[in-house]
Design goal:
This protein is about 15% helix and about 35% strand. It is mainly β and about 325 residues long. It has one domain.
């Protein structure tokens, strides 16, 4: 579905003279809000399967909690990238119709596809509402399904503003052509202030659990990044032993950072069975590590950490 839509999006184009007038509408697209989650990188690729692993590293090795944090951002970014690329590909062309309060790209149907799509952006009092819709091409317009819907409030200057949007992969399952393993929903809330500091909150609900085929899973993420400065990322994971881990990682611009972990015996527990604290330097090598339970592994000195005190996730 995604491949066919991106490959032939030129069919969505209308009159070329409308490009400039449509900029306010196209800039509301979720693909233009810079919501990708970025953690300092060592240049080594990480696989999403690393998320939720809790094996111990050694002092001087690459910090395991950094690896898990970096891997979690891969899961979030790759899980939504294809849909955001669709939106960006669409709005890169002139709209099919353009009025004072609405721009519409489509409807469009590839010659060999059973699906029809359209993308609509509507100006409202507080900003812009938008929706990417799809339907069986043989049905009338009442059959359109909302695949992505959201709202964007522009800031005073470019790249500022806030908004929310929802991706509904369950709705896409009702289309004649769809990705069978892409299920559930994702809800985003984002903000970028006049200093271009950014926050992004993401809630995945009942998405495909790659580690347990045939099962669904929920996941929450919270990201904040000062423009050119410190960043933080919080998330919840459940490992193969059904233990829940809430992790908050913080880092400086040079890459040095700290992660503080609460470990729970089960997803429903509210009192942690213990904590893990780890710090790393600018090259992501572990400099401090402590497990709170009896016999837990410990090394390094906490005062030398990039962040000297623990700060746990509130997710």
């Amino acid at each position: 579905m995604k491949r066919l839509l991106v490959v032939t999006l030129v069919a969505l184009t209308g009159c070329g003279g409308l490009v400039d007038e449509a900029d306010d509408f196209r800039n509301a697209s979720p693909s233009r809000q810079g919501i990708d989650i970025k953690v300092p990188s060592s240049g080594q690729a990480l696989e999403s399967s690393e998320v939720g692993q809790t094996q111990q590293a050694l002092q001087g090795d690459r910090a395991n909690t950094y690896t898990i944090t970096r891997g979690a951002t891969v899961v979030v970014n790759t899980g939504t990238a294809a849909w955001l690329k669709i939106c960006e590909a669409i709005v890169s062309y002139p709209p099919t119709t353009l009025g004072e309060t609405e721009a519409v790209w489509g409807p469009w149907t590839d010659a060999l596809s059973p699906n029809t799509y359209k993308f609509t952006v509507t100006k409202v009092a507080t900003g812009y509402d938008y929706v990417l819709q799809g339907k069986d091409k043989t049905r009338d317009d009442s059959a359109y399904l909302k695949l992505i819907s959201g709202h964007h409030e522009p800031g005073a200057a470019a790249h500022q503003g806030n908004g929310t949007f929802k991706m509904d992969w369950d709705a896409a399952q009702q289309l004649p052509e769809h990705a069978a393993d892409t299920i559930g929903t994702a809800e985003f809330a984002y903000s970028r202030n006049d200093q271009l500091d950014v926050t992004v909150d993401v809630q995945f609900r009942q998405v495909n659990d790659n580690d347990h085929p045939g099962q669904r899973v929920d996941a929450d993420y919270a990201f904040e990044q000062a423009n050119g400065g410190d960043g933080a990322f919080e998330f919840k994971v459940t490992n193969a032993q059904s233990q829940r881990w809430t992790i908050k990682s913080r880092w400086h611009r040079d890459g040095s950072g700290r992660a503080d972990v609460n470990a729970y015996n089960s997803p429903s527990d509210t009192t942690p069975m213990g904590t893990i604290n780890e710090c790393w330097g600018a090259t992501f090598l572990s400099t401090y590590y402590k497990e709170s339970w009896a016999g837990g592994q410990t090394w390094g000195e906490e005062p030398s950490c990039a962040f000297a005190t623990a700060e746990y996730s509130t997710l």
